[in-house]
Every structure is written in structure tokens, then in C-alpha cells.
Batch of 2 targets.
Target 1
Amino acid sequence: MNIVLRELKANARSLFFWCVFIVFFIYMGIAKFQAFVSTGQDITAMLESMPQGLMDALQMNAFNLTTITGFFGVMFSYFALMATIFAVLLGNGIIAKEEREKTVEFALTLPIPRSQLVTGKVVAAVVNCILFTLVMWGGSYVSAQPYNPDTEFFQFLTMMIGSIFILELVFLAVGVLLGAAMKDYKRSGSVAVFLLLFTFILSIVSGMSENLEFTKYLSPFTYFAPLTLMNESKFEPLSLGLSAAIVVVSLIAAYMAYSKRDLYI
Amino acid sequence: MTIFIHELKMKLRSVLVWSFSITALLILFASIFGTVAEEMDLLNEVLANYPPELLAAFGWDNMDMGTVLGFFAFAFSFIQIMISIQAANYGYSLVSVEERELTADFLLAKPLPRRKILTSKLLAALAALWITFAVLCIVSVIAVNGYAEGRSYDGGTLAKVLSSVLFLQLFFLMGGLAVSLLLKKVPSVISISLGTVFGMYVLAAFGSGMGEDTVDYLTPFKHFEATEIVRTGQFDLPKISISIAVIVIAAIASYLLYQRRDIPTV
């Protein structure tokens, strides 16, 4: 418990900055939306005539950008990218920072097993993710109010925030694993981010070309397609299963690696 | 010279990884050009029926992914982000790494003035960035010629698009260095450099919706927008001069700040 509290305190400032950043981002997005609305044209027909591959590339899909729901659908991948960067850095940093700041000896001489230390840190990180996601949800909710959102919007927003939270957990677990398992604590952060950006770009490109269709399952970002979320309002069982598998396997591997970790002092 | 060689050696692996990922990304994009070009012809027919004001609101008025360089500019915006993250990483860690690893007092005890130490470090970082740039140029030319398959394009414009990278590198290297010297402590380089680069990128991508030109001046991604360079065939000089001014100010500030920096002893 002490570790959880200590970690929450230590991460409070960074969490605050991330929250400010995401609120600012939502504000910028809504300002852009305002510009779309003010053109006052129905662009549904135009969007529907677009070639599919191109829409995927531009992350536009077949959304009607002049409705608030359609707009958030397009913003989905940006939100997901920010949230997962937050999560992967958090998960990695919360483990790796002890060696970076030369406090690892101190932390590990505490009269608790290493696994308990990791648990405390993971719990604190998950709490951070929950708070961050809530801020994102609140910001979106409030900023959508002036545009008369309907029930469809709130349903979609819930689905969207839900999938972003799952993505956060996936990358949090991957971050923790890299922090615990990689020998070089200096490099683990970069590797984590590299992996994240790689899977993100892969998710864009896999939609653009049929030859790359097989890469679909390699990237968690493709598990939650905003258009499907909007039309069906439910998660695909396969996506949920794959996400859960990544989280569980990463965490188990992280515990195993950390309990045997040779420390850099 | 010793510092320079040591620094460069430390960065060698990172340069390799960055060059490799940039190469992989370019090859990936080159491989999908055929599909996109076909669809673009279709799209251009559709778009011709829509009012220009509407297209402008979406930024689709000057999007032309069907041409060789238009598509390259699209791919290049991703490359610009990667290059900027690399440069920001080097900038933020250039001096702060010594303090984090508790080697700052060792380094500063060497019989060299601080400005010489900083110069050696900066030159090493620049050399590392320029190696990446050279790889990028070679791969770009090969990739463009590969997917163009006989379609013609303007070599001068391609060179201009590529050279925008040199400015972005300097911007984020110098900016990162200056900010890291303003801070008492840089806890995590990767978080702060990602924050800077993505913050700037978001400003560039969404700022135009705010209906003001002000944000255009704030972010270097707007000063060196690849699609704009391809469309007009030249740099936007007033905007570029802002970036250059930031680079110069950051460089001067870094030397002044490092000269007087308080180094904690271990």
C-alpha cells in the first residue's frame, strides 16, 4: 500500500501535464470541428464516394464529419495514440526509473518480495491510467455539449473510451514487461515507444493495401475499429481475447523477469 | 576530439536503429504507391464535383497523392516526425545524460573549457544526425525512383523536401538542448522529447481549424510542411526564418546557460 501511495504521488505531476495536454488536444479538435460545421454542407455523399483504401490512410473512414459522432470517430485514432504513449511510458518508467535514479537498491531492500513491489507499481500505474481516461472522457463529454449530442453519441463515446482504456492496459503491460526484462534500462523506454509507433503505423498501412492484410492481428490498434464500434456498439470477442492475452502474458513474463533481474547499480 | 569520438561511438547504435526504421518505413510506403495512385485517379474525378471552399476546410484542396511527389510528401510527414524525435532525443540528453548518470563532475574536471566540451558534444550529435540524413536521402531517391516506374517528377523539389529535414534536426536538437539546460533536472528524456514533437505536430495538424495563422508560426512542422513544398515548389521564407531564429537563439542560450550551470556533485 505504501508503494502504491508513493508511486501515485511521484507520478502526480506527470499525470497532471498529460491531462492538460489531452484537454488542450480535445479543445483543438473541437475548434477544427467548428470549422467543418460552419461550411454548412452535407458531406455524407462525398465521403461515401471516396475510395476505401484512401479513407483508411487518412484515418477518415466513412464518417460524416459534420456530426459530432462522426468527428469523434475520426479523432479516435489520435486519442488512442496519445493514451497509449502515456500508458507505455508510464508502465516502462515506473519500473525503469528506480535504476535510472539509483534508488533501486533502496527499493529492493524493503522487507517485501520483489513481486509485491511490482504489484504496487502496476496498481499505481493502472490507477493513473483510469484517472487519465476519466479526464479524457470528461473533456470529450463537456466539449460535445454545445453540439446537441444524441444518445448515439454517448453510446459511441462510451465504446470509444472503453476501447482506449483496453489499449492503455495492453501497452501498460508491454511497458512494464520491457522495463522489467530489458537489461539496458536506458534503452527500454525507446524500445517501448518504437514498438508502439511501429504497430500504429502498421495499423494505418495494413488498411491501405490488401497485400498487408495479414498484419491485421499484429497491431492492437486494429482490434478496435471506430467504424465497427459505432455501427455495432460492441467489442469483438476476438479483440478482447487477444488484448487480454497480451496483458496476461506480458505481466507474467514481467514478474518472472523482475524476480531474477540483475540490477544495474 | 576525444570527446567527439567518444560521443559519436555512444550514438552509433542509435543511428543504426533510426536509419533502419526510416528505411523500412519508406519501403513500406513505396510498396503501396501503386494501389493508392489508382484510387487517387478515381478520387480526383469525384472531388472535381465539389465546391472548393469545402475542400479547403478539409485540407483536401492541395492533396494529390496520385503524383509521385505528392505521395512522397504524404509519406514524408511520418519521416519528419521520426527525424524530429531522434533530434529531440539527442538534444534533451546531450548534457542532461551526464547529470543523470552522475558523470558530469568527471567530465567537467577535464582540462577543457565548458564551451569546448559543449561544442564537441554538439558536433558529435550533428554528425550522428547527418549520417541518418544521408541514409534518408539515399533511400528516398532509390524508393522514389523505384515506385515512380517511369512517371516524371521534379528532382529539385525532391531535394527541397529532403533538405527540410536538416532544419527540423537543428530545430529540435538546439531547442531540446536549450530547454534541458533551463530545467534543473530532466527525469526522462523520451517522455519530454515525445511530448515536444507530438505537441508541435498536433498544433500543425489541428491548428488550421482554429482559423488563425498564429499557430502556423509556432510549429516547425508548418514551416516545413512537405505537401506545401511540393505544391509550391519552394520554401516559405518568412516562416522558415522563424525556425532559423529559434535555432540561433537556442544555440546562444545553450552556451550561456551551460557556462553558468550549477552541477551537483555526487
Target 2
Amino acid sequence: MEKLILRRVDHNDEEVLLNFGPQHPSTHGVLNFLVQTNGEVLTRAIPDVGYLHRAIEKIGEKVGYPGFMPYTDRVDYVAAMFANEGYAIAVEKLMKLQVPPRAQYLRAISCELNRIASHLIAVGSTAMDLGAFTPFIHGIRERETINDLIEALCGARLTYNYHRIGGVAYDMPSGWRDKVLAFLDHFDTLLVEWDRLITYNEIFIKRLANVAVIPAAMAKSYGLVGPNLRASGVDWDLRRDLPYGAYPDFQFKVPVGKAWYGTLGDCFDRYYVRVLEMAESSKIVRQALEKIPDGEFMAPKVPRKMKPEAAETFSRVESARGEMAYYVVSDGTENPYRVRIRTGSFTAMGIIEALSPGLMLADLVALISSFDVVAPEIDR
Amino acid sequence: MMTTQDIHSKMQAQFGEAVGPLSEPKLDAFATVGASRLVEICRWLRDTPGIELDHCDDLTAVDRPQQNVIEVVYHLFSYPHRHGVVLKVMLDRAAPALPSVEEVWKAANFMEREVYDLFGVQFSGHPDLRRILLPDDWVGHPLRKDYQEAGGYHGVPNVRENPLVELRRLDVKRRAETAAQNPPAPPPTPTEAPKA
């Protein structure tokens, strides 16, 4: 069989055609790039995705509304809380359910802890892909603590399945709040240490600054979302600008790219926005733990078999990889008629071909890791 | 910030019959637009001051065999104005085709490829319309409601026996073997009555 992707390449003798991936340590999962290089400079890199396609949207049409929740974990297993939350919000809109305030707070706490864990992987693996292994281990160590905390909350360490349609699955266990606060006290000092460990490292800066610059207009046109969009200078965060759940109650800043060491929208901005976001998430968790109201953590009388009336809705949440949206269409039966998941990684892959001409091959690695793409989220 | 109704009435004023009526808003209302003027409408929505839908949030499709249509759904949003609109294009299921909006929002490139891959919708003017999630030689478009699995892909089956059945078979076999190796002990002989 002729691969259609090869029709796009018209290479001469000077150029080399390489397969980058699908099993390459710095592709963040099973990702393939068809790379055309002239010496060490890329002529173009064509992403070839789909190796992890598991037909999650099709499964959504085959199982009932509550039964789809565990599958959403698998959409983005590095930040599964957000996938849970987005789906729960969409179905709650269809079912016209009111989520109790305590559940909203528990959702915010679990999501922000998950955001810290996910960003630790993101910034750690950025450093690892560029050859600095130690920061990744530091990040993983802190993430272990968060995994322990979330395990105490919901029993799972990776695919949480914690949010429910109408609330969350469990309340906080006793003593959990103090454990989280103790971790955050430790974590805030770690972020200072993190900057000294890797952010100000001169080689690291040289590998990221001025590499693969994305202007704001280009970022918008290609549909970049979340930290990737903010790094290009677009001041936009769904938690602040279209708040959902408990987010109107919290005070936090939205870090935006400032061309710290190079040009606005380069790889370093994308990296450092995430570091700053972790500090803001820590603030949000503290405020939420302080203000969390008493009461139920699940809406009363949530039916086991849901039959929302025929309608369609679109819910957007600010995931660790940017906007995650669920488009759920109901036809009045027990199963959704259509579930569509819009993820940040998928659109981030779309921009790589446009950015690749003129990059060095080693910069492609920096570019991919600065987007913080997660392969299952691309392919779903 | 404008409501969906405002944007829709402006669209109707500008494009007349190409823009259908707004749907009954059960939750999210949508406007139906004609495929022929789609690109023009999208570019107008992106560039008109006050509307400026600069973010193609989502582009997907819904298959409705009963009505014999495939709906292509555009969720558009504006960062500066924080408003949005949902557009739908109704296509014939037999030969769904419409112009690509890739030149308006580059994000549509991958999303249209996905819709082509999973629904079989042809986007004319798309620069690189290939399958994206499935292999190039895949047969059929799986998110269509009447999709039939082809019964495997290059020798990889898509059905398998329930693993519990296989385990049960192994279990029965092992018990039979054990029984063959260790014949059951003879029934206990009647012992003498205990002496008093």
C-alpha cells in the first residue's frame, strides 16, 4: 500500500526523508513525524497521528450517559480530572442538574491539583527532552505526592473517574485538607528551587528562547488553546473569562507570555507560562480549602438511567492542555446521540507543519515538548 | 458582546436566504447556513468589526440517517468580544460535500480531515484531505450510524472469544488432567466398631 503522506513529499538528492517516531523517547507518546531535512535543517515536518485512536467518540454513542465517565479518563490520562469535569458539565446542562457548592469546590480542588501534576510532567519532560534529566525526576517526585493525595480522595492514581454527573464520587477524607496544605507549603518553596534548578540554566534558555515563535494571530488562527495560546500573548483563560463551577470565587492571576528571554511566543514562553501557572493553581487550592462550604457533594435524585430531552450542548473547561470542549447531542434515549471531544493537543499538532521549515531537527523536539501534547488526547 | 440572536439577525441582514432561521433554543441554538456561501459567511464573521469570530472552536459532524442528512457543525467564538455562534450545514448523506474553511481558520485543516475520515464528508478546496486518525486504506467511515465493521484489518480480527470462556475450558481441562493423575481415593473401608 502506498502511504498517502508520501505524495506530499518531493525530495531531491540533497534532502533526507526521516521517520521521527512513532516510538521515539521525545515524542510524548506514539506520534510519528515524516521529517524532510536538508542537513540538520528541516524543510518540513508532517505530523502523522492516529496511532492511539481508540474510537472513544464512537464508544460514547454505545454506552449510557453515566457509563461514559470512565472512558473520558482515557482521553487525557495525564490530566483526567478535566476530561471528567467537561463531560459532567455537558450532561448536567442537558439534564438541568444543579451541582451542590461543596461538589463544585471539590471539583476545583481536584482539578487544580491535577493541573499541577500535569504541568510538572510538562515542564519536567521539556527539560528531559533537551537533555536535562534531573528536573524530570524532581517533578515526578512531587507528582507522586499529588497522586497519593488524589488516591486518598478517589482511590485512583491515574484514571480518576472522580467526577460524577451531578457532583463528585466521594467527599474529602478526614485529615486530607491538612495533608494538602502541608504539600502546598512544600511545593511553593519547590517552585523557587525549580527556577534555580533549570529555568535560569543558560543552555536550557538557549535551547528554548527564540525557537519556533508563534505570533498571537497565528496562534488564534490555528486554534491553539490554553498555555500555548497565552504564551503568545493572548490574555485568555476560561476559568477567569467564562468562569464555570466554583472559579468565580477565587482570586488568581493568569500568566501570559512576556518574552522573558527571547521573542513573544517562543518555546521558552510556553515553558515558563506553565511554571507560573502551577503557582497560581497552588493559590486556588488554598483558597478553595479555606472557603469550602459544608453540605452535600452530590445533587439529590440523580437518576441512574438518564434520558435527557432531545437537545445539544457544548461545554468548555480549561484543561491543563487548554480548552477541552464536549459537544453532546441527545436524542431523548439513554445513550448520547453524539459525543465529540475537542482537545488542545489535536489543534496543537496542526500548527507543527507550518512552523517546521527552517527549524533544526533538535528544535523540533523542543517544539513538540513545549506544546505539551499528549498522544491519547490527539487521537482519542 | 452580542447574543446569538444579534449575530444571527446581522448575518441574515447581510446574506439573506443563505442563512436559515435560528433553531429553537432548547440549550444551544444554531443557525443553518447554505453550503454554497459558507466560506463567504465565515470570512465575514471573522472580519466584521463587532463580531470578529477569530476562534474556530470546534468543527465536527453529526450523522442523522432518519432525515438523510449529515450536519457539519461549526462552533465559532470571539476572544475579544466573548460571544459565539453555532453554524450548521446540512448535507445529503449520499454525497456530502461542502467548501473548506481552511483559508479562514487554519485550525479547520485538521478538524476537516477528521470529519472526512470519520464521516466521509468531502471538503473541496482543502489542501491535504487525507484520513487522519485511521489508516489510509481503511474501509468506511466509522462515525456514521450505519457503519458496519469490516471484520478485521490486515488479519487483525475485530472480534474475539470471551476470555472467560477460554479460561473455563482451560479449567475443565486441568481438572480432568489432575483427576487422571491422582485417581480418587477408594471409599473408606468400614472400620471396626470402636471398642468400648
